[in-house]
Every structure is written in structure tokens, then in C-alpha cells.
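no rush on this but wanted to send it before i forget. theres a chain ive been looking at and ive put its sequence and its fold in C-alpha cell form underneath. i want to understand how the C-alpha cells follow from the sequence so walk me through it. thanks a lot i owe you, the record is right below:
>
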Amino acid sequence: MELDERRHRLGLGLLSLLLVCSSCAARFVVEKNSLTVTSPESIKGTHDSAIGNFGIPQYGGSMAGTVVYPKENRKGCKEFSESGISFQSKPGALPTFVLVDRGDCFFAMKVWNVQKAGASAVLVADDIEEALITMDSPEEDRASAEYIQNITIPSALIEKSFAEKLKQAISGGDMVNVNLDWREAVPHPDDRVEYELWTSSNDECGVKCDMLMEFLKDFKGAAQILEKGGYTQFTPHYITWYCPQAFILSKQCKSQCINHGRYCAPDPEQDFSSGYEGKNVVIENLRQLCVFKVANESSKPWVWWDYVTDFQIRCPMKDKKYNKECADTVIKSLGLDMRKIDKCMGDPDANVENAVLKEEQDAQVGKGTRGDVTILPTLVVNNRQYRGKLAKGAVLKAICSGFEETTEPSVCLSGDVETNECLDNNGGCWQDKTANITACKDTFRGRVCECPLVDGVQFKGDGYSHCEVSGLGRCKINNGGCWHESRNGHAFSACSDTDDGKCKCPPGFKGDGVKTCEDVDECKEKKACQCPECSCKNTWGSYDCSCSGDLLYIRDHDTCISKSASEVKSAWTAFWVILIGLGMAAGGAYLIYKYRIRSYMDSEIRAIMAQYMPLDSQTEVPNHVHSEERA
């Protein structure tokens, strides 16, 4: 039986024929990316391709590769190892993109077999002329889930006519090089991303529910960082169905719906006679919507992530805790207003519309570039449906690609979204293997070559072939790229923070300062120790000069003098210093003495004049000379 997945998937997979989607005319939008042929010249051009709904598309980036069309197993439904075929690219070569034909097995199986053979991407050639469709994963089962969750390479469906051109070029011996581009797959108009997740509180629906619950736990941290920083606006949504009017009173509708058949969900265990019912899921979905609404009103919309992850852990269906009592415990622990949440939920038994769920049904209908939401889970980023594996790194990359370039928050440059292109030949960027410094930097948009900042020291250059340190502190990083050497306990360097980034050999050396600095032989080149009595001996980085006999070498004057003459000169110098000092002390003492005597004489003269020529208003001035006679 041929399984080619040609039909569009228009529903979640109804577990009861009585449940009907609220949007009568479904509109499914195929998300596309650009595929450009760069060689050969005869088929150059750009074409659309449909992004596969599994694997990890490189949102925000692009990938170049060489297309290969296998001679055997052209539909990719068998493992290529059985034929000894490998698509692993050789070092230095472009990645390998394998072209396979549609038909005979699931799309995901083809991609998985090609991935195991070492390819980097898969192009699936349509076998009929039709509009492109989305390659979706098969219906839930454990066998397919094991390989689907391990698919990490991107895939795309291409039109039959375009595929024939590729095949003809390959069969003619041409090297076919193409470029897959996801940079415009998600619009990026500004510095904030709006995204929404269509989900469900049901944790017993099989593989997809397990995957969804795991994603919620893994992505919670990144989502809250983005939301708290104001970088994103997140909105959770929940799909509901309605029961046809003719069956509202049936047992099936009563067990799966609330508000008299207006809002329904499939039975979790697909067994109407036991376990939880569909209406239990609808009520919890409604509660989670109201948790978000109340948290958003208090300017803390990220609390929704805390509630859904805590509820999943504390109130699972398998432990029979999927109920209001357990939910209220979680709500209370998060400090949310329970009365507001209960008021928001309303009465599920009333024969009236529920404003919150009615709004959800209206939102399911596609608007603008977004198609109808009919599959769970569904992620929409900037009004474009996400295609690919629901994993933290892949989703974060898609969200980050929605920011206008250069406005991405720091979380978008974390290891979770690195492309790891720097691992292959250092990404073609500059590097200093000695100092273990590289200009290659992985980002979610691909690698960039930018001269790095290391320990506060900035490297400058083009990042591809040249980066050099500059500014203060540059000599700390690999000696500023300059020559340096140590010998006999002495270290010499051609690096200086004050030489405008240039390497200059230190005194006593000559060379370019980068690779070499050779010792200058001052003695041989007669640059020192040239006095007749001098004897010169060259040392590494310097020289030693000595004088014959009892002569003493004076380096500053490059001359030799007698040691005795030097001693006599020193003695006379000391004598004159002492003599001058004594003279200065005597002069100072004389000045002080003269000042004191003059002051005393002035006082005596005033006293005598006051005795013989007294004034009416002048009091008697003491006479120091005749004080005893007056007494």
C-alpha cells in the first residue's frame, strides 16, 4: 500500500465523528523557503520549496550544498547502508543535499534514511505537477516517533518540473550547487516578536502530547526571559470543536462538550466508558486561558508558563489528579487571584456562549498570511506557522529570526541556537592557534567573522584574514603579536602599549619586531666603549665595558678615569659641600643676631625719649636702664 501523504491534513485527527471543527472552510497555508541554484549556469535561478514539518529548519540562516541524486534507492524508503552508500561530505567540501523521489513511504522516513547516510539536507521531488504541500509527519505511533524526534536535518519539497531540471543536470555530469535560504521564512519587521502556541492540557494523547509537555518544560526558561525583557509578546491558544445540533443530547456530546455542545474536545483515552472525559480537557483548557488572562492583567503574563508546567507535574491524568482541586492548589502557590479566574471561566453547564472560548474558535480561522489552525501543537511566529521539530533550540532559532537584524536579545546568541559552523575549519575566519583566539562566532543566523574582545583588549581587523590587538593592555594578549624572548633570567619584548600598536625591538636589538629581534653587537659595530683605555665585551641585549689598570669606566661619558682621582674628586666635593653649608649657617645666625640687637636698641631709645619728653596722653614707658633707681 503506497503511503505518500499527498492529502493536506485538515484536522487534529477526530476521535469522534460527532466533533466538528468550528471553521467550516479550512484554509491551509504552506510555509515556504527559498531555494537558489547557483550552478550550472543553464539552470541558475530561484525557486520556492515547502518546509517539512519535522527536522530542524535553519530559520534566520541559509545553507549551501551540492545536490546528489542516488543511483539506487531513489525514493529513500530503505536504508542506504544496505547498498554501501554514504553521503558524508569530505573535509573542505560543500555539504551534501540528497534528492529523493516522492512515494512508497512517509516523507519523514525518507529524510531519516538520508540523514543516517550522512547528508546535510533532503530535497523531495514531487511526482505530479501540483501546488506545493507541507510534508507532515505520519500519524502517531511509537515506531515512527522514535525516528521522527531524532531527525535534525532540514528538508523541503520541490515541484516536479524543477526536480527534472536538477536530475538532467546531474546525469549530464554537471555539479549542481544550491542554496537553501530560510532568512525570509519568518518576517522580521521590528525589535519585538509576536508568537502564539496552540496547545492542550491533555497529557494522555500519545506521542505528540509527550513531546508537547517536554517542550513546555524545556522552553519555559527562555520564554520567560524573552517575555520579562519585553522582547516578545506571547499568547497561548487552545483548539475547541463543536457538536452538531442533532447530537447535542447524545451521550458522546455530553461527555466531550460544555455549554450545551458549543465547545468540545476528544476523549483523552478514546474510551467513553472510563477515565477522563473530553469535557474535562475543555474545562482545564479554559482554566489555563483564564490563568493567562489574569496574569496578563497583572503585567506578569509569563506566570502562564509556571502554571502549565506545574500543573503537568503535580496534576497528571495518570495519577488521577487532573481536577479542579489540584489546579486550585497550583493557582494558590503562584499567588494568582482564584476568584478572578473562576469568574473568567463562567458556568460550563450554562446554555450560553463562553466569551473566552468563543474568541478561541474565531482565532482558529486563518488571517492574512496565516492558515487555519487544525493541528496540535501549532506554533505561529509573526503570523507565520512554524514548520519543524518542536524543540527548544529549533523554536528559539525561529523566534530569534523574527527580530529585526541587530535587535536580537542576548538569549538569541546563547549556545541553544548556535549553528556550530565554527567547528568546521574555524568557519573560514581568522584565528590565533597559539593563543587559542578566534574571530569566528556562532549565532542563530549562522557564523560571523568579527575580531574578538579578549580580557578587555579589542582586536581590530577584517575578521577573515587579519585581526590584531590594539590599545592599552594589548601586550597581555600573546605579547601583542610581537617578538619576545627570555634568556639568562632576563626577558625582552618588542611590544609596548605606547607605540601605536607597532612592534618595535627594544634597545640593544634590531629587527622587524614581529618575528625577529636580533642582538646588536655594540662592541663590533663600535656603538659603545670606544675610549682608548676601554675593553668591550658583548652580552645578549647589552654590553660590558671595562677599563685597564685602576681606571673606572663612566658609561654616560664613555670614558675611563683614575680611581684615585675619582676618590680625590669625591673628597674635595664633600669638603666644599660642608664648607658651603657652614657658611650658610653662619650667615643665617648673623642675620638673626642683627635683628634681635636692632629691636632691643629701638626699645631703649623709645624709653629714653619718653622720660625727657613726656606726652599728656602717653603712659609711662618702663626704663630698662634705670629701673632699679626708680624703684
Q: What stands out?
A: The CA atoms of residues 53 and 387 lie 4 Å apart. The radius of gyration is 45 Å. The chain has five domains: 32-182, 193-412, 421-470, 478-519, 526-562.
